[in-house]
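Severity: low
Component: inverse-folding endpoint
Summary: output formatting inconsistent between runs
Steps to reproduce: submit the following structure tokens with default settings.
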């Protein structure tokens, strides 16, 4: 988001740029932050301006534990779920990343689109809504995974 001034024909005294930085790996995030700082500082210098960069609350990348993920995938297959995509990568920004940094685990997503009911808009779209039947499926998958992990007690 960019905020700068209130009139189209007046150069504002200040401007603000806000957003998120999302990466799959910490090393990439560090590089992006370093380059962002360099670009902002050098463009500001070239334009005779001052810039202040503030970053806070950077959520780490969501990284599933491979052993837990394999167990959960097997359990999901045993429940009859046949559409499992283990290759999908998405730039979710989730508090789950903080948990996964402390305890091995697995973050999974349950599809909730329903084209027949017009529930097929992407997240953050103003028309986004979801098929609430996905809640029952999600709760069942989480329960089956928890029970299966307790039964198998994988060493991670």
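Observed output (run 2 of 3):
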């Amino acid at each position: 988001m960019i905020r700068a001034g209130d009139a189209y024909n007046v150069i504002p005294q200040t401007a603000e740029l806000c957003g998120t930085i999302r990466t799959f790996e910490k090393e990439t995030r560090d590089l992006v932050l370093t380059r962002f700082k360099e670009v902002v500082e050098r463009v500001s210098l070239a334009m005779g301006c001052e810039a202040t960069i503030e970053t806070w609350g950077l959520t780490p990348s969501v990284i599933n534990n491979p052993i837990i993920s394999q167990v959960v995938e097997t359990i999901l297959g045993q429940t009859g779920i046949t559409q499992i995509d283990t290759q999908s990568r998405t730039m979710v920004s989730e508090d789950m990343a903080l948990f996964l940094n402390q305890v091995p685990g697995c973050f999974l997503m349950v599809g909730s689109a329903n084209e027949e009911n017009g529930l097929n808009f992407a997240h953050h779209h103003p028309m986004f809504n979801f098929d609430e039947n996905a809640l029952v499926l999600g709760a069942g998958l989480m329960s089956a995974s928890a029970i299966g992990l307790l039964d198998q007690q994988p060493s991670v």
